[in-house]
Structures are given as structure tokens and as C-alpha cells.
Design a protein that fits this description.
The structure holds two protein chains of two kinds. By secondary structure, chain A is of the alpha/beta class. Chain A has two domains: 169 residues, Rossmann fold (3-Layer(aba) Sandwich); 126 residues, Rossmann fold (3-Layer(aba) Sandwich). In chain A, 40% of the residues lie in helices and 20% in strands. In chain A, the strands form two sheets. Chain A has a seven-stranded mixed β-sheet, with helices on both faces. Chain A has a five-stranded mixed β-sheet with strand order 7-9-8-11-12, sandwiched between helices. The relative contact order of chain A is 0.13. The longest helix of chain B is centred in the N-terminal third of the chain and has 28 residues. By secondary structure, chain B is an alpha/beta fold. In chain B, the strands form three sheets. Chain B has a five-stranded parallel β-sheet, with helices on both faces. A two-stranded antiparallel ribbon of chain B has the order 1-9. In chain B, strands 5-6 form a two-stranded antiparallel sheet. Chain B is built from ten helices and nine strands. The chains are: A alpha/beta, B alpha/beta. At the A-B interface, helix 3 and helix 5 of A face helix 5 and helix 6 of B.
């Protein structure tokens, strides 16, 4: 188990989600030899260079062939072995979607697909490389678990948890270098259990991935306006912690925020939970509206999608008035 | 030695005939459409694989040979072979396509009755077989991996991704049987996607050890499987076959790709296999 300290949190923030993932895998590999890591010719870009040089026998490169990578992962996982299959988020979830559906959904094999650089962090590379719909698509496949950790420490915790987790998982990694810091000391992390990162009695903001940090910052703005907002880190988008959602019914407003399309992701999952409840607060769904943003810097993209802390706070105030 | 071989082949020919009889009866009994043409083309391959090539299914995972039917719609050939060689209860065949049955129109993974993988979406089984063979190499497992792919299926790009990687990973514990019946759902392959004459060259170019045979000749199928792998190379058997093989009105007739078999047609088909209905 990697210790979580302020200094490490700073380091993880500096190196970004992909490098943190590579480091987490490397640390796990030093302690156990019961998993393989696959890459479709992106080991270097996935932070896996050191893992590859230290554990060459456990790193398999399938070439630029994501469909085959998932199938090969299935063969390797058939005896129960844990297999991490990694690539950039659209390639591993959408190019190989039907392989994921057959091998991970239908056959429930012990594969963890890792979507690197999801959300908007691919910036100038454009929408071909963005992860807008990846989480929604993976969530729609029966039997899949979908996790989108908030920061470096949460990525470390998630990878450690996945090493002992039996069954198919999509690990959605958002954020790059300059990754927000939410956790600076040890915390309890359990797949499927939301974490309260801020208490509040007026409204609840339920967020995943990078948006946990932005939601908390938005809550601070709102506090200045006399609104007391709770913030929940809903890192596991499926299966959703419905209990934690139902505990928010006494609030004036429930807000969901995700660095993902609002079609089929966290917001939808929360709405599906709340739909049958008669007495409930309205839900404001923040995320990427149904469009392809114009590529540019990460900050420029967040602004287009109204996902900066200020914009989140503004939209919440608007919804409250 | 030769006598053993000839004896085996004579017996496997009888098995292939029995698989056809069982498959036709199942297709008739299920009351709906069944994929007959592409199942009938691989009966020799299935009889040889289960009857003479693969090891004891009772062996532990690390040793038990693996077979993946990548062209999942040919499932009648798989179910009948598993039943013929005692890997699943023969009574199960009567449940084919009935509600609640484990035997639906494409295989659903259930290793305890010999179904190693779920398939039905074409072009995926070879990748899984590559993973199985690679796992054996990495972990020192002794099983062999066999995968059967269809001719129409080979239109899928993922088939070739998988074949490339089988060569790249030097999988000399891996055998692909390509059922080249030269037909597919919409008709003759030469009219749909004209590559059916090129498989041997394509696989050789990738670096496979390739053996091209008459895939409906039990002797040739048996001999092809018995050829040892060249070191560091995956093996491919390109079996030239006839879709609907064994039943005159089904041979090379794509009406039988997926169709309902009436009682009268069943009787006619069985009489060709010299069985009194």
C-alpha cells in the first residue's frame, strides 16, 4: 500500500494521471506477480515505460490493434488472471467496444480496461482523442464496473483496489499534469462507495474525476454567497452508490458534474436513481453538452463546456434563482 | 502405424456422418431457423479435433486443450461433437434453442460442458485463442489452443489483427482451422468479398505455417492436424470445404445458411445419409 502524504500528492499532481497510473502499476508489480499489462503501442505515453523495462515478461504490446488487445486480454484472463488493457480512452472503449462487450460483459472475464487521457485533457489533439462518451458506453454494458478517480492519490488507491478486484472494470482516467489535488492524506477508498469531501446542508454536488476538485472549489464560491454545498466524490459511476444519493433528498438542489458527456454518464446514473422518487429536489446536470468542443488548451475547453469552478458556481446560482 | 491411422479415419468418418445426422435432427426439432450450411461444412474438422486431436477434457485447466468456435453460428457442429465425445450429456441436444436451455444459437461459455467461450460476433475468437496460447507460453501451461474461423468471417479486420499477433508472439502451440467454404450470408464469396482463393498466400505472407487441404476429407484433415508445428510458428489449416456438405439439396445452396428444416426435408436429408428415419 502506497502511503499518501502532502509531498506525494504534490508530485502526483505535477506528473499527471497517466504517469501516476504507471507508477501505481509499477508499485503493485513489485509486490505481486499475478497480473499482466497490455498496451496497443502506447506504453510510453501511458506512463508504463518503467514497468516495461523492469517487468518485460508481464508487459504485452499488441501493436496498434485495440480490438485484438481486448481479445488477447480475454485469453490471458480466462484462468482468472487479472489483466490491465490500456490505451487512450476512445480507442480502448469505442474502437474495441464490441470486444469489451463480448469478453468483459458477456463472459465477465477478469479484465480491467484503462482509458488514459479521458475527458478533455488531450486538448489540442482534438476530439479524435477526447473521452466524451467512453464512460457512458462502458456503463451501458451489463456487468461492468466503471471508476473515475478524482486525483493522484485516488488513482493510486483505485489501482491497488483493482489488483484485488475480480471482474471487468473500466478505469477512466481524467486530468493531466497539474492534476487537481483532493486528497493529501490517507483516506478510506472502496469501489462503489462515495466519499464525502465537503459537508453542506443546502445543496449537494455529486462529482467524479477531475470535477471533484472543481466542485469543491465551486462550493467555496457558493459559501461566499451564503449557500452551504456538500460535495460527494462519486468515483464509482457503476455500480452507483445509490444509498449516498438517497441521503441527499433533503437538499434544495442536487448537482452532478462530470468531465464527460452528460448523455449516459454520472448525471444520468444519478437521475436514474432519483426518477422514481416522488419528493425530491431538482437535478442540475453539468458536463459536456451534446457537442464536440473546439480543440484547444485544457482551460479553453473547460470554459467552452462551462466546467471551471466559477462557471459551475454561476450555473448553480442560476438554477437556485 | 498406417493401419492405426486408417482405422481411426474410418471411425472418424462414421463420427462425421453421425454429427450430421444429429445436427439435422436438432435443426428440425428446434422448430425454427438454424444455421445448417456452415455447420455441415466443418463436421470432418470437428470429428477429427474432438475424436483424435484434443486431449482428455477431464485434465486440469493448465493441461486441457482449448477449442474456440470463432464462427459461433456453426454451433450445431460444436454441440453435436461435444455430445458425441461425452463432453456434454447427449440429452442436452434435445433442448437446443428451447427457452432456458444452455444450447442457444451461438455458444455461451460454460466450460463444464465443453463450451470454452461465448461467440457469435464474428472476428473475435482468434484474438482470444491468441491470448490463451500466449498465456500457456508465459505460464508454462501445456495445453494446445485450436480455433476455427469461417471464410465469411475472415472479412473482419480483427481476424487479421489476431493472425498478425499469433505470428508476432511465435505461438507454435496455436492452430487455426479456416473453413473455406467459399460462401457467406449474402452468397458466393467471390461476389461479396473476393479473397477466398488467397488465404494460403495471405497467411504464409504473415509467417504462418500453412497447410491447404480438402477440409471435408477426414484423412487430409487428420494428417494436417498431425503435422507438428514448425518451431516458433503458428499453424493454419486452410480447409477447402463445401457449405451444406453431405446433403445434396443443401450443398453450395445458400438457402441453407439459416433456414428451417421441415419433417419432409429432414427425411430426405437423412435418407441421403443412409438412415431409416
Amino acid at each position: 500500500m502506497t502511503e499518501i502524504t502532502k509531498a506525494k500528492a504534490k508530485l502526483w499532481s505535477r506528473i499527471g494521471a497517466r504517469a501516476v497510473f504507471g507508477q501505481a502499476i509499477l508499485e503493485c508489480a513489485k509486490e505481486r506477480d499475478d497480473f499482466y499489462v497490455l498496451s496497443a503501442d502506447l506504453a510510453q505515453s501511458s506512463g508504463l515505460a518503467r514497468f516495461r523495462s523492469e517487468f518485460p515478461e508481464r508487459m504485452i504490446n499488441t501493436g496498434i490493434a485495440e480490438q485484438n488487445m481486448i481479445g488477447v486480454a480475454a485469453g490471458l484472463a480466462k484462468d482468472g488472471t487479472n489483466v490491465f488493457a490500456t490505451s487512450f480512452s476512445p480507442f480502448v472503449t469505442m474502437r474495441a467496444c464490441e470486444q469489451v462487450r463480448m469478453n468483459m460483459g458477456y463472459m465477465q472475464l477478469n479484465i480491467k480496461t484503462v482509458g488514459l487521457g479521458s475527458g478533455l485533457i488531450m486538448a489540442q489533439l482534438g476530439n479524435s482523442h477526447f473521452g466524451l462518451e467512453d464512460g457512458s458506453m462502458m456503463r451501458a454494458i451489463p456487468g461492468m464496473t466503471v471508476v473515475n478517480p478524482a486525483d493522484g492519490a485516488a488513482i493510486i488507491k483505485t489501482v491497488e483496489a483493482l489488483c484485488d478486484f475480480k471482474g471487468p472494470v473500466y478505469l477512466r482516467l481524467t486530468g493531466g499534469p497539474g492534476l487537481p489535488i483532493v486528497y493529501e492524506e490517507d483516506f478510506l477508498f472502496e469501489i462503489g462507495k462515495a466519499i464525502s469531501v465537503r459537508e453542506g446542508k443546502d445543496i449537494s454536488i455529486i462529482a467524479a474525476g477531475t470535477m471533484v476538485y472543481y466542485a469543491r472549489k465551486a462550493a467555496e464560491f457558493l459559501a461566499g454567497k451564503g449557500i452551504d454545498a456538500a460535495v460527494l466524490d462519486m468515483h464509482t459511476i457503476k455500480p452507483l452508490d445509490t444509498e449516498a444519493v438517497m441521503e441527499q433528498l433533503d437538499k434544495k438542489l442536487i448537482v452532478t458534474v462530470e468531465e464527460a458527456s452528460i448523455v449516459g454518464g454520472l448525471g444520468s446514473a444519478v437521475a436514474e436513481t432519483l426518477a422514481p422518487v416522488a419528493q425530491k429536489p431538482p437535478q442540475l446536470m453539468l458536463g459536456i453538452r451534446d457537442f464536440f468542443p473546439h480543440a484547444g488548451s485544457y482551460g479553453y475547453l473547460l470554459e467552452q463546456c462551462r466546467l471551471t469552478a466559477e462557471q459551475i458556481a454561476e450555473d448553480i446560482l442560476k438554477a437556485l434563482n | 502405424m498406417d493401419e492405426t491411422r486408417n482405422g481411426k479415419i474410418a471411425s472418424l468418418e462414421l463420427t462425421a456422418r453421425q454429427l450430421r445426422i444429429d445436427a439435422l435432427k436438432m435443426a428440425n426439432q428446434c422448430g425454427g431457423n438454424a444455421h445448417l450450411g456452415g455447420a455441415l461444412s466443418i463436421m470432418e474438422a470437428m470429428a477429427v479435433l474432438y475424436g483424435a486431436v484434443m486431449n482428455d477434457p477431464g485434465l486440469p485447466y493448465e493441461q486441457r486443450d482449448k477449442f474456440i468456435l470463432s464462427k459461433g453460428h456453426a454451433v450445431l457442429a460444436l454441440y453435436t461433437a461435444l455430445a458425441a465425445f461425452g463432453r456434454m450429456d447427449k440429452g442436452l441436444l434435445d433442448t437446443f434453442m428451447q427457452d432456458g436451455s444452455d444450447l442457444i444459437a451461438h455458444p455461451v461459455m460454460k466450460p463444464e460442458i465443453g463450451l470454452e467461450a461465448s461467440s457469435g460476433s464474428l472476428g473475435q475468437g482468434i484474438s482470444m485463442a491468441v491470448g490463451l496460447a500466449l498465456a500457456a507460453k508465459k505460464k508454462g501451461y501445456t495445453y494446445q489452443t485450436y480455433v476455427l474461423c469461417g471464410n465469411g468471417e475472415a472479412n473482419e479486420g480483427s481476424v487479421w489483427e489476431a493472425c498478425m499477433s499469433a505470428v508476432n508472439f511465435r505461438l507454435d502451440n496455436f492452430t487455426l482451422f479456416l473453413d473455406n467454404n467459399r460462401m457467406q450470408s449474402d452468397g458466393m464469396s467471390e461476389d461479396v468479398m473476393n479473397i477466398a482463393g488467397k488465404y494460403t498466400g495471405m497467411l504464409q505472407a504473415l509467417g504462418f505455417q500453412v497447410i491447404e487441404i480438402d477440409g471435408n476429407d477426414v484423412g487430409q484433415v487428420y494428417d494436417a492436424f498431425m503435422v507438428p508445428h514448425e518451431e516458433g510458428k503458428p499453424k493454419a489449416i486452410v480447409g477447402n470445404t463445401v457449405k451444406g456438405k453431405g446433403i445434396s439439396f443443401m450443398e453450395n445452396n445458400n438457402d441453407w445458411h439459416h433456414n428451417r428444416l421441415t419433417d419432409t426435408q429432414l427425411a430426405a436429408a437423412l435418407s441421403e445419409l443412409e438412415v431409416i428415419p
